[in-house]
């Protein structure tokens, strides 16, 4: 069987020798292709790999997992259609996906109406604030990313910055969240620029920021190819002002796209990016090391933050099914919400009725790119 998600309409039955052996249906719609493929591709590969691992170890509740997966290519309309299909036609008990904020938001009402638990893989705080009964997520919020960045800036004595943000769902949300809390850190935005998701040159915006007197650092709120272009243009213009990026670019693919100009860039990221630097007494050491080793041996590609989000979503879901004692949507939802002390690749998760993320700022590591690789920021 070919397990690649080759077309948007391809349904995959993963991790089982035959449909008869796959008893618990879990759905997924991720952006394996399209503009968010740097997020969705490692997510899809991770889900396939973990289903094989879990089924080989006996499954959950003595039953195999059947993963029914679609590639929405980053299109919110496709994501909504696939979520509906997963529920009505495929009869899944839960859904993982929404690689982007846009695709996630399009899925949320569908799962709420059908009362199916959904674990999002996207970053915006609006996904879990206010809390939606049937929606959870594994990535840190954009608001948390802003806080981690501003903590680092404040420690470095930065009080005045320039911002450049993508106008897509993630960029707009992070921009909004950063502006809401920046005053708490004694930092002021002197100039505020934006770019579109299809823009191929951000030199004009960066030239404006460079020309603004008093700017001590630059913050780029965005994900996908946009921040890589910003970073390359930043290097081409010879700007020396420190550049901060969001957790939306926390993968080796960003470093490769941005090239040498990425050296010195700082951003909040997860433990997976610095797995080789973790101490053995770090609570995430065993989980992060095992996932990194398995993923890289299976795919031949570096493990990334985004694959880690999918890892935590599926492991959390399977853990919740086991604790619920039955694979029924309402029971699974309740068990997810009751999660305490779940150690994942992204952090240690403690959910509640008022917190459908369950992570705090300690789950973020402040990173710096050095010599084309990740290092802990000073």
TrEMBL record:
Recorded hits in Pfam families, A to Z, give:
Peripla_BP_6 (PF13458)
Q: Where is the Leucine-binding protein domain?
A: 24-358
Q: Give the superkingdom in one word.
A: Bacteria
Entry-linked SUPFAM superfamilies = Periplasmic binding protein-like I
* Leader sequence residues: 1-22
Q: InterPro entries this protein is in?
A: BCAA_transport, Leu-bd, Leu_Ile_Val-bd, Peripla_BP_I
Keyword terms of this UniProt record: Amino-acid transport, Signal, Transport
Q: Where are the transmembrane segments?
A: none
Write out the similarity annotation.
Answer: Belongs to the leucine-binding protein family.
What's this protein's name?
ABC transporter substrate-binding protein
Instruction: Please report the organism this UniProt entry assigns to the protein.
Output: Mesorhizobium retamae
